[in-house]
Design goal:
It is a single chain. The protein is α/β, with parallel strands linked by helices. The chain has 2 domains: about 5-15 and about 100-240, Rossmann fold (3-Layer(aba) Sandwich); about 20-100. About 45% of the residues lie in helices and about 10% in strands. It contains 9 helices and 6 strands, in the order βαααααβαβαβββαα. Strands 3-2-1-4-5-6 form a 6-stranded parallel β-sheet, sandwiched between helices. β2 (about 120-125), α6 and β3 (about 150) form a beta-alpha-beta unit. The chain starts with a strand and ends with a helix.
Length: about 240
């Protein structure tokens, strides 16, 4: 029985063009650390550490620890000297990126409808960012106060999309089986990988992200508005439990 709904954030619950957003993100970050590290170097080093998180198979280290290990080993900076710069960026500057998103009231309606039916919800965003950055984006999407059971971030996860272990880690945390969960997302590779666990999947097509290689067949497909209709038609978990 379906009990848990996993939602991607960027391009799904928070409509945005990821390429435009990331270009603006690095522009803000470069400006924030200007004078401390070279412009090209910070972009290169952040990508290098990010790729390390994505490829990591080490379940003993959080994504945050993988990022730190690679970034500080490569740059030679000490964590206590440079990490506060990242913290202040996400605290003081990241919010400026809201203008590069296109929030939709449909996202809130989806969440409220699902919660009202008794489903547990997960923000299953690729855990490459700290929780603070994710909280900002949830607020922009109008879902900051939704009672999510779990929000994945670089601090609390040990794998990334498209690794199926990312999805298995979520299920393990929640104590759920794959057949009890469904993943909603706009990336044919990263979100489609949930199907490898046996989970049902829903491809959200408004801001579709395709890849030249490796894609998956989704159980369902439609726009964000279609997702709302889909959730409205789901049976109530509360009623099923009472029965």
């Amino acid at each position: 029985m379906l009990r848990t709904l996993l939602f991607d954030l960027d391009g799904t619950l928070l409509p945005l063009d990821l390429d435009v957003f990331m270009k603006a993100y690095f522009g803000k970050l470069v400006h924030h650390v200007h004078g401390v590290i070279d412009e090209q170097q910070i972009v290169s080093e952040v990508w290098k550490a990010t790729k390390a998180m994505i490829s990591s198979e080490d379940a003993s280290r959080s994504n945050e620890q993988v990022f730190k290990d690679v970034f500080f080993d490569s740059t030679g900076f000490k964590e206590e000297e440079f990490w506060p710069l990242f913290d202040s960026f996400y605290r003081d500057r990241f919010a400026e990126l809201k203008e590069y998103t296109e929030p939709s009231p449909i996202a809130r309606k989806i969440c409220d409808t699902a919660v009202g039916k008794g489903y547990e919800l997960v923000v299953a965003t690729n855990p490459l960012f700290p929780r603070l950055a994710i909280d900002h984006r949830m607020e922009w999407a109008g879902i900051g106060d939704v009672p999510f059971r779990l929000v994945t971030s670089m601090e609390n996860m040990h794998h990334c999309k498209p690794n199926p272990k990312y999805y298995m880690e979520i299920l393990d945390i929640l104590g759920r089986e794959p057949q009890e969960a469904m993943m909603f997302g706009n990336d044919v590779k990263e979100d489609g990988a949930a199907s490898r666990t046996g989970m049902e999947t829903y491809l959200v097509t408004d801001y579709l992200v395709r890849h030249e290689q490796e894609h998956f067949n989704f159980t369902h497909e439609g726009s964000l508005a279609d997702v709302l209709k889909f959730v409205q038609e789901l049976p109530s978990v509360n009623a099923a439990v009472r029965d």
